[in-house]
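Subject: Sanity check before I submit

Could someone independently write out the structure tokens for this chain? I want to compare against mine line by line before I put it in a report. The sequence has 511 residues.
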Amino acid sequence: MGGPNRPAQGGSGMNQRIRSLTVALSLLFLVLFVQATNWQYFRQEGLASDPRNNRVSAREFDDRRGPIVTADGTVVAATEPVSETVNPGSRFDWQRVYPQGDLFAHVTGYYTLDYGATQLERTQNAVLVGKDPAQQLAAVGGIFGGGDPTGSVHLTLRADLQRVAKQALGEREGSAVVVDVRTGAVLAMWSWPSFDPNPVVAHDGDVASAALAALHDDRRKPLLANAYQERYMPGSTFKVLTTAIGLERGGLTLDTVFPEERAWVPPDTTKPLRNYGGRACGGTLLEVFRRSCNIPFARTAVELGPALFVDGVDRFGFEQRIPFDLPASAASTFGGRPSRFDDALALLALHGFGGGDVQVTPLHMAMIAAAVGNGGRMMVPHVIAETRTNTGTVIYRARPETWLVPMRADTAALLTDLMVEVVRNGTASCCMTLKGGIQAAAKTGTAQLNPEGETERSHAWIMGFAPADAPRVAVAVMLRGVNDEISSSTGGRLAGPIAKRLLDAALSLVP
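---
Independent answer below. Compare away.
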């Protein structure tokens, strides 16, 4: 007689091993998924902006790429089938082209096999070739079905406004930036000199190498996006910051009266400071602001002292990299921490009116103007409005975001009144009367680059916004003091007409 039936011990052990193996494989798959997601999604921006990540394989280079398109529908980067007339004998099927030439080169950058990619071509590579994780998830069917996986990048910048900036600046070295006061969207950002990316992306290696070498050798650095990758002494536009800090952290009021004087000797020196042109200047805050006297703002910086003044400047984002969606943005700098000025109050005085070691990017100056117009809130700047799949599904959409709040709303309102007076009766009265009687608010600047007695060299600046009573757009224009035309003029007379053209155009285009 047999005993009771029992399951085979070998089968039970086998099932247990299979279950253990299944669990282990599941855990390994989970780890792989987490790591892939980390590298492809969460670390994507860092990898894309890493300058060492600048080479692509020939196979990847010949992948089709999606377009980059402006807010008004102009294609500024696209992929076309290789033409035997353009690239005879090329081993590639696709050619990257930039239909607008130099107009958006500092935004799109370029995409090459031997020299990598720059600007949006680098940071948005995954979207453009269809490898963004969210994009792949949305288009799995299309990818496996052999469809077009590419995506597109849609800009906040407008081609029509960018052309106005280019025409207004002409062949004068400098930058012009227009931003939406309310959202931080960059509507135009032009620097001259610029460059045409098309020769750089030629499939003929000799042509591409020669084009890039010529650009690198150009002393004017056309490959550098001066609007946000270079900083300059701001001159009297910096008085907006000194006034804001004085109103909030010191005893400065609209009733403050400064003495009428041609020169003033600050502490820790025997060398006097003078107003622009050596003229006598003084009076109420409104008077010295509209006339752009130097000495009152030097006095204000010294009276505030190093700790309060440097802290106030930091609140405007100095010594911080701007959270911009284009790579390698330069940080504006005040030129030192408070301890540097403890025994150098004369240097602090010089910094009070934008001299010394103060340096600002044109983009940051436009953001400061926008913050005044936006009730004291400085928005995160951005050039990307959306990214989309090939079928039009939105992958990413920019949302307005506050970066800093450097001043109170009542301080911003007082500064607006002061800047309106600059346009009505001050240093910008020559050239900032807008179409339709719209009132602008502005501050000019002439940044003297050389010591007294030498041939004068100075940058010409203006920053401002409009309409003054309900601000929509802000502007900053900077012209480099590389020749007599710029250095012999002032910010109002030289940069002012450019700012006026940009504000007129922007207000007619931006609701």
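---
OP: Matches mine. For the report I'm noting this point. The chain has 22 helices and 17 strands.
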